[in-house]
Amino acid sequence: MAAPDVTLSRPGVINNASGTWAQDNALFLKVFSGEVLSAFQRNCIFKGMVQERTIQSGKSAQFPVTGRFLARFHTPGKQIEGQGNMAQNEVVIKIDDLLIADAALYDLDEAKNHFDIRSIYSRELGQALARAYDRRLARVLTLGARQSTSDLTANLPTGLTPDQAARTGTRVNINKATPTADDYVAAVFAAAKALDEKDVSADGRVLVCSPEVYYTLIQSSRAVNFDFNQQGANGSYSKGQISQLAGFSIYSSNHITQGNVTAPTGEQGFTWNGSDTVLSSVNMSDTKMLAFQKGAAGAVCLRGISMQMTGNDYNVMYQSTLMVAKYACGFGYLRPEAIVEIHNTVA
């Protein structure tokens, strides 16, 4: 007597609609997509540290820039006429070409594997996009710190100039052949001072260091030592962590010292003070840290990170599965005065 058939529970089927390969595997795509997204979020240091905007359509996004009015005492009986035009400008961030990370997995190779290769591929695709996101923002922030010309210079009301915070970036040069931990600490405090002098909000300040600098800071007698942090532990020698310094939340990234980078083909850049187009070509060989506030730069997203995986037709032709993780975003600095590059150029 033949064994009875078994009614299977098919975790990949939507509402009992089965019978084809696509139907039997419909829900498995969502698991893979989630792995890409989580890998991107875990490995992307800079995401959430700048202004982020999502647009539904279009090729760019405008960020209006306004100056300040001047307060003054009123003379009794004198008519109030207004101060005239406020200094105004705009920053336009363009959407880059579609950024992708892709892999084609041969079916027979996948069958021979004794472990789940797709989960590994999914994590790697997400991490590839995260690295590109971080590297781009690090370059944009570095360019902002080096912006030496303000974009709010025209139509300033009389008397406004002394009260106008300069929209220019700041660079702090350590200028030592062998910087000590306390040298780095002093540079961070110099960055905080520069932001304060330009009326940059203390909320959302971030310091991103190269790994070398990050672990050197931990060894500073001032950054972690309890004598200098009476309100509680600011870090740990045993765990290799440091939390805050000079009001900055501190992070480590491999993308601070990128070397001399030329903007890749497909990057569309942004418009600053009428200069079109500003690309992220920059030499970061001497860059050690980037100190900035959340309003310093912007990321505009037309298509958020998503995942595509080929279906049965592609599989029949190539006996493989093509996996593509992608997003379409644009990047640009918005407030150079909110960015400080700490570098070490020894004369």
CATH homology superfamily name: Major capsid protein gp5
Could you say which structural class the secondary elements and strand pairing correspond to?
alpha+beta
The helix content, as a percent range, equals 25-40%
CA distance, first residue to last residue: 91 Å
Beta-strand segment tally: 18
User: Largest sheet, described in full?
Assistant: 6 strands, mixed
| CATH-assigned fold name | Major capsid protein gp5 fold
Overall mean pLDDT score?
Answer: 83
CATH class: Alpha Beta
Number of domains: 1
Architecture overview:
The protein is of the alpha+beta class and 347 residues long. The chain has a single domain, classed as Major capsid protein gp5 fold. It is 25% helix and 28% strand. It is built from seven helices and 18 strands. It has helices at residues 21-24, 28-43, 107-112, 117-145, 181-197, 211-218, 312-318, and strands at 51-54, 60-66, 88-94, 99-106, 170-173, 205-209, 235-236, 241-242, 244-245, 248-252, 260-261, 270-272, 275-278, 282-283, 287-293, 297-309, 320-333, 339-343. The strands form five sheets. A six-stranded mixed beta sheet has the order 5-18-15-6-10-9, sandwiched between helices. A four-stranded mixed beta sheet has the order 1-16-17-4, sandwiched between helices. It has a four-stranded antiparallel beta sheet with strand order 2-3-12-13, with no helix packed on it. The longest helix has 29 residues, at 117-145.
